[in-house]
Please model this.
Amino acid sequence: PVLRLLEAQLQDQRREHEEEMEALKNQMDLMQEELEKQQQAFLQTLHLSPEVQVEFGLQQEITRLTNENLDLKELLEKLEKNEKKLKKQLKIYMKKVQDFEASQTMVPVERRPHERSMQVAVQRKEKDFQGMLEYYKEDEPLLIRNLIT
Model:
């Protein structure tokens, strides 16, 4: 069983390696084609007059900058969409927190059994450990608010 497992892992790694090599080969081919295009364009510009060479260089730079701007605009749109989504989530969570805090203030102390036990525990603990406080995690906002006020 261990040998089969190792053999399967080796085959998976070999397959992944082959896929990665194929992807790199394709990327290299694309880069080679782009390099050949740039070399041809460069050779063509060498036969042109200096004014035309400058104009051609400017056109290439404008094209490059335009493509870069389009990429940046696309990235900006994605980030803005993500920001809107996160703001919506924040509003939802803020509403939940407010609703929870409102429900905690509306429930009388007598109906909160864990708070009564917490108060008893605090009184008992103060005798043994000064400065220690036991509380439930869900009571933390209420505790903080009471400490502040």
The chain is about 85% helix and 0% strand. The helical segments are 2-46, 50-106, 113-128, 140-148.
